[in-house]
């Protein structure tokens, strides 16, 4: 039991074929709207789909309205482990932890985000 701590989770599933079609139709405009240049650099369509799923999951876990896709940036360390950076516009005062996991199959990308927050008024 975690007194004074709220656990929130978000999950998202992206069909790779649908994402690739959106990427093909939207081109550079699509990429610039959804991703930071550092996220796009050298990323395959499959990796971009996973990062998109991670952003969707983060919106859910953080309770943020969708739309400001640049408020959430997905990074990968040298071993491929993902992490999340939040822009200064995102309220982080009560945020203790924000963890992300991304996985792929031949057809889908899935991401899960779990946050720990200090309960307000606790």
Distinctive features:
122 residues; alpha+beta; Ribosomal Protein L22, Chain A; three-stranded antiparallel beta sheet; two-stranded antiparallel ribbon; 5 strands; globular
Care to count the β-strands?
A: 5
**DSSP strand content:** 25-35%
Give the structural class.
Answer: alpha+beta
Could you state the order of secondary-structure elements as H and E? Answer: EHHHEEEE
Task: Please outline the major beta sheet.
Answer: 3 strands, antiparallel
Detailed description of the structure:
34% of the residues lie in helices and 34% in strands. The protein has 122 residues and is α+β, with helices and mostly antiparallel strands. It has a single domain, classed as 4'-phosphopantetheinyl transferase domain (Ribosomal Protein L22, Chain A), CATH 3.90.470.20. The strands form 2 sheets. It has a 3-stranded antiparallel β-sheet. A hairpin with a 3-residue loop joins strand 4 and strand 5. The longest helix is centred in the N-terminal third of the chain and has 19 residues. The model has no long low-confidence stretch (mean pLDDT 93).
In short:
By secondary structure, the protein is α+β, with helices and mostly antiparallel strands.
Question: What is the fold's blueprint, element by element?
Answer:
Layout: E1 5-15, H1 16-34, H2 37-40, H3 45-62, E2 72-76, E3 82-86, E4 95-104, E5 108-118
Antiparallel strand pairs: 1-5, 2-3, 4-5
Helix pairs in contact: 1-3
